[in-house]
Amino acid sequence: LALYMQVAERDPRNSELLIRIASCLAGLRRLEEALEQARAASAVDSTRTEARWIEGLTLVQLGRDAEAVASLRRAASSGAARTLDLLAGALERLGRDEELVEVLARLSLHYPDPARQRRAAVLERLGRDDEAIEQYREILRGDPRRDAVAERAARLLLARGRHDELIELQRQRAEALPEERGLRRSLIGSLIQDGRLDEAEAEIERQRQADPLDPYVELQLGMVDYRRGDLRAGMEHIDAAWRLAPDVPSVVRWRMRLQLAAGGIDSALVSAQRLRALRPADVEGARVEALAWIEKGHPQEALEALGAWAELDGRAAEPWMAAAGIHRHRRDWGAALEAVARAHERAPADTAILLEYAVALDAADRRAAADSIAAALLAARPDDPLLLNFYGYMLVEREHDLDRAEDLIRRALARSPEEPAFLDSMGWLWYKRGRLEEAARWLQRAIELGGRHPEIYAHLARVQIDMGRQTEAERTIRLGLGIEPHDLELRGLLEEIAGP
Predict the structure, then answer these.
(1) What is the Cα–Cα distance from 500 to 498, expressed in whole angstroms?
(2) Which Gene3D superfamilies does UniProt cross-reference here (predicted)?
């Protein structure tokens, strides 16, 4: 640098010399001085792309990307890879994706694979999925082993419903890489998913010929039978796969699914627990375990499994809603409120969760907050029968402003006169007013029209008990327990009839 500076004193307008000085200064991280010398070189000779390159480089290093883009665009006329790469980085940081796509197209002439992959990702961001898919296909034509690229292409094709193209892409990779059995399994899975079951069977037979003891052959034959509606045959194949590979998570998972579909709660629970032992982070295993414990009427075990499910799936509101239901059955309103609040955090726009949140707030004596939620929803949709009934029933439960409650429930019934939930609300309203015959009439009608919620049976049984009709009440309770054997309210009414 010192020698160049000495020479520059005698020849201050030598652009080559100014560029060398700028390069030395940039290497010494004296960026502002380097920028000044590079600009001086450009002023002397505007055709010197090296000066523009150093100017762009120092501006990038100074964090001045917008200025760098202007310099690098002029330098990029030479098509040099380093200039295009630096320009692409600056445009990406600035979020100028439309310009970035064009620069990456030029850069792909130098670095075809990485530049195309970057370009495809940008095209995805821009919503230009067709072009992104084509970029991924070009990469895979050059190297079909690129699993991550294939996965991105598959995701886009699935999102656009282009199943035939996805299957063709998978078929091409499976044929190009016959030693990669996982590729043919993926192809078979897509054929099954798309309902092309005969083609799937033909591909499975090819797998069987290659390896008669491959457990995935039995697994996928079971999936084909299941999709054809033959649950028994499907289960036989899945069991055969399990005997060949009892510790393969995908086999255990499908065994669990078919056991659940067949109503085998106990066996599905065992499979879910085995799946979680094999893969502790498996969300579906935790979900099925939780649902099985709920079905079996083991609330504490269910709550533990629901907690695991909620932790593994940080976005799902369902496990918290299920937990709220358990707490509500236990009359633990504080825990129910906390669970619904967590569900609401995960799905703040879900109306059903908002309504459940209002119920939990009301049960916890936070009535003003409950009213605020219900009133806001009803103001937004004043003719929604579900909201009308919900708010009306909440007022009935409080035994407060029953005239207003009746008006709301009648408005709901005017829109859906045979909805069992609305008929139940009206029956409970009359019970709260002490009109037992009228209450029984409405509640019986709710059941006759298909009401299957245990609460409706509990309401009718309560009315029948208060009317002195113990035999009828017991019959009603037992019908309700046939729907929900572990309902605490129904069981409590049965104990009340039985006496001490």
Answers:
(1) 7
(2) Tetratricopeptide repeat domain
